[in-house]
Amino acid sequence: MKRGLLKEIANTPTAIVCGWRLYGPDLPRLRELAGAPVEIDLLTGVCSVSGAVLDPPLGIAGELSRWTRERFDRDGIPAGTIARATTTVRAQPQGEALAIDCGTVVETTRGTYSSHDATRWGRNDYAR
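-> structure tokens emitted (128 positions)
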């Protein structure tokens, strides 16, 4: 399996969260969880905060999990290759804005691939 493919798989969930899919009810919920890291298991879609399951999960969690499974199927990544895949999102209020810090880690039998990004959402993005 090519390293570039696994790096791309680690990059994409972070880009989805920071770039174009974090919206709607997820932003107010993240504001309520300010400072607490929300971990999304990309293989199952389960969200947790400090080890406790977040129920219901963030909407983005299901989307990221579906994308991950579809990508594994499309690229023929054999079962068992990915030991762990998580995206962690931490929100921090900045006045009326919300700063989002996001990172993804994909652990395989041969190595670890990661990505990190940050963005900022204005009040109009989450006050709907």
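Residues 12 and 115 are 9 Å apart (CA to CA).
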